[in-house]
């Protein structure tokens, strides 16, 4: 992660706001109740119960910025994968975690638990804390994912004791049996260099035998550790048997990611002072109501080198510290002035889990000529985009409002999967992460 870049934005000074009188903690017409109907598991990052909020799954490197790391570890697992989340308006409950081994396409591999775990595949979450002096009460859960003995894709699922599914998270465990090297590719088309970020890579398998690599090796590339727009390459462009090398080069623009722009940001870690991007704080409302500064489209503007966290978030409370249990939940209002209605507009980022749904969709206000949206968010530093979905079933286009630039700083990681002859599962045999335009 570009932690130096993030450190710059977190050091921005806040503007003073007078502190209003304290208000009662009871919820005024607000409730968060979970669904009681059992839902089928989805092998992706997903929340099944409305009471579950602020989910973070990351590699535990130590320090407050570790939450920005992806849920990716080597098979040796020198650093653990950690899962943290809140459950609103509920008392502590016995929750159970379980791992499912999956293939490269995130379908269950069919392996039995003993083939990838040394333990019984049912783990109670015992690190549980109640929130302290928050207007929206919640319980915070923390879980250290157990070690596994096989590389590949894993889905971590958390349920209530008794079976009601609460959330799932994707985890990657790799074993570097091959070497992955990446480089900048050639721009595509007359505007390719201005908007897209071409990345090409090679896979060297000098010390690991690949049988029929043109058919049995699959590659995936992600931008900023996102799954919603990951690119899948079912076969290499060239197989160099004499060099024991697979070559991935791309000749079409669709195979390269748009660079987009640096993420928009706001900082709600204080409710006494207006932080970055905040226009108004209403302390008399319960939950506290935060209104962000109105914004406009950035398409067509020159590139701006603003520090960000690659679309992720850091929770915090400047007044009391210990964000795990002291950071409160607030309503956050977003406003995008467009002049006229454009279509379906969504908020995108780690705060919305990159999903398109009724909660993340903004509504157009004809009188104000602006799109408006509201989210219930834990106090913290957040990154986000505005994205337009042209029509139902189509992918959202963040470049419509954000623009796209070759110079934007992004993180890319490359995943190499292989199914050995006679095996029943895809293994993750190579992993590499690169920083594009690291500032």
Automatic annotation (TrEMBL):
Q: Which InterPro entries does the entry mention?
A: T9SS_Plug_N (IPR031345)
The protein depicted here goes by the name: Type 9 secretion system plug protein N-terminal domain-containing protein
Q: Which domain of life is it from?
A: Bacteria
Which residues, if any, are the signal sequence?
A: 1-20
The organism's lineage is: Bacteria, Pseudomonadati, Bacteroidota, Cytophagia, Cytophagales
Keyword annotations for this protein, in alphabetical order, are: Signal
Q: Which organism is it from?
A: Pontibacter indicus
Give every Type 9 secretion system plug protein N-terminal domain span. 52-175
């Amino acid at each position: 992660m570009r932690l130096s870049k993030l450190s710059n934005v977190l050091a921005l000074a806040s503007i003073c706001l007078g502190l209003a009188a304290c208000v009662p903690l009871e919820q005024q017409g607000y409730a968060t109740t979970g669904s009681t109907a059992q839902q089928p598991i989805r092998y992706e990052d997903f929340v099944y119960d409305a009471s579950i909020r602020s989910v973070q799954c990351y590699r535990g490197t130590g320090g407050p910025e570790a939450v920005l790391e992806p849920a990716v570890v080597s098979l040796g697992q020198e650093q653990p994968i950690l899962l943290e989340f809140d459950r609103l308006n509920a008392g502590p409950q016995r929750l159970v975690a379980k791992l499912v081994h999956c293939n490269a396409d995130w379908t269950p591999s069919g392996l039995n638990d003993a083939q990838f775990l040394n333990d019984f595949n049912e783990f109670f979450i015992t690190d549980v804390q109640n929130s302290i002096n928050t207007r929206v009460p919640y319980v915070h859960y923390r879980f250290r994912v157990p070690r596994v003995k096989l590389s590949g894709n894993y889905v971590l699922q958390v349920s209530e004791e008794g079976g009601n599914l609460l959330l799932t998270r994707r985890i990657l465990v790799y074993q570097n049996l091959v070497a992955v090297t990446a480089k900048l590719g050639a721009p595509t088309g007359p505007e390719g260099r201005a908007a897209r970020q071409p990345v090409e890579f090679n896979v060297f398998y000098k010390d690991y035998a690949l049988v029929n690599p043109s058919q049995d090796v699959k590659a995936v590339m992600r931008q900023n550790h996102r799954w919603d727009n990951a690119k899948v390459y079912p076969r290499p462009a060239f197989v160099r048997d004499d060099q024991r090398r697979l070559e991935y080069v791309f000749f079409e623009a669709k195979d390269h990611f748009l660079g987009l722009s640096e993420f928009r940001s706001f900082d709600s870690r204080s409710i006494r002072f207006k932080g970055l991007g905040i226009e108004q704080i209403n302390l008399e409302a319960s939950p506290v109501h935060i209104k962000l500064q109105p914004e406009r489209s950035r398409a067509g503007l020159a590139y701006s080198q603003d520090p960000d966290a690659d679309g992720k978030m850091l929770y915090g409370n400047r007044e009391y510290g210990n964000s795990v249990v002291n950071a409160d939940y607030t309503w956050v209002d977003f406003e995008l002035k467009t002049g006229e209605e454009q279509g379906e507009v969504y908020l995108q980022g780690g705060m919305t889990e990159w999903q398109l749904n009724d909660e993340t969709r903004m509504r157009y206000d004809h009188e104000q000529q602006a799109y408006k949206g509201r989210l219930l968010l834990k106090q913290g530093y957040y990154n986000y985009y505005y994205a337009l979905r042209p029509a139902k079933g189509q992918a959202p286009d963040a470049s419509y409002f954000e623009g796209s630039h070759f110079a934007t700083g992004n993180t890319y990681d490359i995943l190499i999967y292989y199914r050995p002859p006679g095996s029943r599962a895809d293994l993750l045999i190579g992993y590499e992460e690169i920083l594009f335009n690291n500032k």
